């Protein structure tokens, strides 16, 4: 059909049906109602705690707090994949408003981060200018979708009024320590008082009064939940900043920019999240989260039970030290024939001798003349690898001898100490006792370096006890202990569990070890050498002591700088260190302040790192509750109302939190940690931020590639006879992500212009189950547009624009169809099954269409109410045309009459060996036992069985009975 013919038909249609629901009419309706909602404050959430009138009116109403994960305002704007979760939470929030809940639903913006800073470097545009422009564009796109957010509660993390409280929370964490005995965080001042009073002895036995100010600060720093330390970090010269482990790809490159990342030691801020490892793990049981997400968190935390063991070692100058290892197989201690330290281990420098010991194997030295040369070279090699690369099972095992020996504490044997990259500082103690006979990685390493192997757990597979004849380690958890006896202790003959218990007790008695629990979780690196982030509320005095700013000095606002970029270096130059942009503003960095500590005005230097972009998203669920409170983070009563513990939600938290599964660990783990600290310090009543988590799927799109493998614009591809062509040339088609680089994006603006926002909303919700990824098909959008057109025709005359509903009673089939639809839609909406809810609405709407007009008012109004959460603009318009003065947003959702909703009878199929032998008409509520008896007494079934014994009867009431003969 030519474009001129299409235009002519459209013009004719407009002439004969001027009030037909078209894209133009949808645009008019949607714009008018969006303006109305804004002017009237339709979605503004009243204060149910501090407003007496609201409290009285809504005292008996349940609450529902619905949240989306924080969006980042990209300059590229939204494509149709982005709003999937936002539309879903909007539908759910609207449904709950209509079912009598006080609903809190809003959306802010996670606006600090590297993209805006990189754009500033490229263009000279201040990050705030570009970010605010992106936010404005995104707000407009989201508004066009008709999202019912309370915009008065919206904010961006870059707002000083917001990051004032991000900085305040940092100070709470900095000024706290974790009391293991109490099992919670407490103010650091209480710990200092314990040291000062002598209630808690100092580690070195001195009195608190004998310590210098620097020594006191260093000691408290070992306990603070936010602390600065010299630690191994991921240094990315190409970006000029350090990265968290999670920002480094598996092949050792930066997630952003794909630059090489190296291990380096730098002084950085950290959060002691490890103190909360057990609670973070335990409290997962209180949450209504997908099991897959819980599993990822459990694996990341990585709890393991074992023992701490001390291996004596002498330093190069003859001093006695010990290497601490954590092992889950303390039963194999007699089989430890060498040790391995992570290349970053702090003891390495002190134990490396000047020369190789006599008799050192050539393969141990790596070809180097001295131990220090070998160790230095290997450490540089290891620094260029990611943790994932270092731990890859299939890779060749590498390492080098340090020249030092340790002593096996049970056998007294001298064991050589190696460094190897398969041991990480990020797990355990950064040192392992290597038991090559019973660990595959140690086995491979021992083979490569010709190290001895000792079997101490007798194999149960008949391979014998000589590891020299084995193809791999015997790492099973069963078997009896052998070759494990010394003068003071013997494990021979014990099973693994018994051996663990005995050796742990023996180590504990002698003070050279103890049973312990270890976690894979590491402390959270919290510094970034960037400009576009929250400044730390920390200053340093002339002695280098870190001081928290008083709350009266918050917020510490981000100052202006001439150059936004951190100093970057050649990507492969590992011998460099960060230079943050804030350090260039000397006037801001050097300040004179009175901190209110009685010491008067003094000179200080500000912290020039900024917080990571995770900081602002760690607590935004709390600020939504009380965004205009200038006196405190959140009013405790407000927090208790919206998020406090209650029946079925013992940890409290947001009622529904929707976002992508890609945030399974980092954001969720960090937010949980901050929330628990605030709970411990008495600021909030809930101890988990998000009670129910739901991960929406991804909207995918077809990617078309030419013969060169280059993506071509999807909109320009034609399908002919099952083949795909671009400019007449064949192209391949695969399903993938939607993105600009793949030339397959579709913007919501395009769909809204062609069909209307309500159609887009319906299509995205109807594509399939919300938690499943699905392909986008623009051609299929028209199906939902036709649904709305049929809905419109059932209420409005397309020629005159008059409402056609009548005040007559519907017939019984229509009543039954209506109440079954209401019942089903209510259940589906409550369980986020929006695709099946739309199917039920469609089925009922089609019933009315087939029945012919006019439609009874008592049927049309419930139909409009059912549609309202899904397609709010057309519902609002029809509701008003039906004569209602109040908004449909707060109208009550229809309730099904059970008498009409229940099915009168259903057909039950009776099968024998999978073949249908009878059909029974039964009540939908028939009990399983009654249905089984009825099926077995059916003559056709008895005849088919012919007296055979029955092995099993499977009943799936009310629709299936499957009989399995013996």
Task: Please provide a written account of the structure.
The chain is α+β, with helices and mostly antiparallel strands and 966 residues long. Helices cover 33% and strands 18% of the residues. Among the domains are: 303-519, Alpha-Beta Complex (Isoleucyl-tRNA Synthetase, domain 2); 699-736, no CATH class; 755-900, Orthogonal Bundle (Isoleucyl-tRNA Synthetase, Domain 1); 904-965, Ubiquitin-like (UB roll) (Roll), CATH 3.10.20.590. The chain starts with a helix and ends with a strand. The model is unreliable at 1-6 (pLDDT under 50).
Could you write a compact summary of the structure shown?
The protein is α+β, with helices and mostly antiparallel strands and 966 residues long. It has 31 helices and 32 strands.
What structural class results from the helix and strand content?
alpha+beta
Unreliable parts: 1-6
Give the strand tally: 32
Helix content: 25-40%
Give the N-terminus to C-terminus distance in angstroms: 64 Å
Strand % is 15-25%
* CATH class category of one domain: Alpha Beta
Give the name of the CATH architecture of one domain.
Answer: Alpha-Beta Complex
Would you tell me the overall average pLDDT?
92
> Biggest sheet, open or closed, and with what strands and sense?
4 strands, parallel
Overall radius of gyration: 34 Å
Name of the CATH superfamily of one domain: Valyl/Leucyl/Isoleucyl-tRNA synthetase, editing domain
Morphology call = globular
